Amino acid sequence: xxxxxxxxxxxxxxxxxxxxxxxxxxxxxxxxxxxxxxxxxxxxxxxxxxxxxxxxxxxxxxxxxxxxxxxxxxxxxxxxxxxxxxxxxxxxxxxxxxxxxxxxxxxxxxxxxxxxxxxxxxxxxxxxxxxxxxxxxxxxxxxxxxxxxxxxxxxxxxxxxxxxxxxxxxxxxxxxxxxxxxxxxxxxxxxxxxxxxxxxxxxxxxxxxxxxxxxxxxxxxxxxxxxxxxxxxxxxxxxxxxxxxxxxxxxxxxxxxxxxxxxxxxxxxxxxxxxxxxxxxxxxxxxxxxxxxxxxxxxxxxxxxxxxxxxxxxxxxxxxxxxxxxxxxxxxxxxxxxxxxxxxxxxxxxxxxxxxxxxxxxxxxxxxxxxxxxxxxxxxxxxxxxxxxxxxxxxxxxxxxxxxxxxxxxxxxxxxxxxxxxxxxxxxxxxxxxxxxxxxxxxxxxxxxxxxxxxxxxxxxxxxxxxxxxxxxxxxxxxxxxxxxxxxxxxxxxxxx
Length: 497
Fold this sequence. Notes:
Layout: H1 4-24, H2 27-41, H3 46-50, H4 59-65, H5 71-82, E1 96-101, E2 107-112, H6 117-135, E3 144-147, E4 155-157, E5 160-163, H7 165-170, H8 175-178, E6 181-182, H9 185-188, H10 193-204, E7 209-213, H11 216-230, H12 234-237, E8 243-247, H13 252-262, E9 267-274, E10 277-281, E11 290-292, E12 298-304, E13 326-333, E14 340-351, E15 354-361, H14 375-386, E16 392-401, E17 410-419, H15 424-438, H16 440-447, E18 455-458, H17 463-470
């Protein structure tokens, strides 16, 4: 349906696309400008004084004075902010703290400044506009749009507004989108995820939904409830549903199940947002790789993942990255994060312009026998194995079995099937072959009879959701790790015998 709104959206999209590709065509100059601006702006902060920012004239100086940190390393500065100090990591006080779950430090408080906040909104808006610019499809702006996210309730912690990132962002949705946006504010504020999804189903069942956004696993739950309540496919309920926007996890393991629930395929856009910044988005539909945001107040560094735990791993700038190498992403930002390891690993699919895919977490891998298997490998191995199968999966994770009752150790794949394969052992053999092709260390362990081929264990229906509920992590931005080097998660799963 052509409307004045969609007409202007197309014109605006072309303008924004030109602006984006202008800096994308000068990536190194863009990053150099960001680097200089960050160092200059933070010279008089406590962190800047502690780390000799006034003496930093080059990237080599920066590496000399500013070591790599994770949240634990930054926490003493965060504590000073919480104790009322100003100009600690960045000028003034943070506008917000984005509250996230930590592993060793409990709740993490990630600063968001008045300078960094606009980029969280701008990048999401640009992703939609570039989709319009490349496809000419703007009809979705005429319908209702839903964003499955955390509660927008904001608390005050130590005098600073605090909440989940998705909830904070909800306060900055442009006015021109408010009339189209769903769910209602009241429903969005519901804390219990299952109650919230049921309320969203009731609110949206008879609406003209055209864009749906969220982490795939939680959107899948929403779709299942829609189908259960209406007896219709999602695509039949929402004939104008044209665009699915997602982030947080790889969509491919969910695609078959999602398209089954929808009843047809729909276009999709992948985003890469985090509490620490909005790092990348898919600028061209159906093209592998997300455009790295080089003009968003973030300076990027990279360390090869397979050297990250060395005593002195090599830190490099954007100019020195290579294609198809797994890197740990390090960033410094206008929110006051400095040489900060967010824990994600990425791989470059293009250098002109710079596009990445997220390959996993540096802390989420299996290397019980030196194989260093990462999330990207298990996801790709499963996706390839499913191509000729009737099987549909809901969720999965992988863990090592180091002390089996009999036989050699192995990798155990815990899979919740929506539709089971014809032969579970054949599927396991396919996945195992794919893993050997992708990971030479894993292949060596197979050939050397150190490991036996992987074994699939079936997880009971809703087993993953039940686990997340017991951990207080059902819904929102929470997601199941694709793999881990221990069995803490899998030992709590309800599995079929």
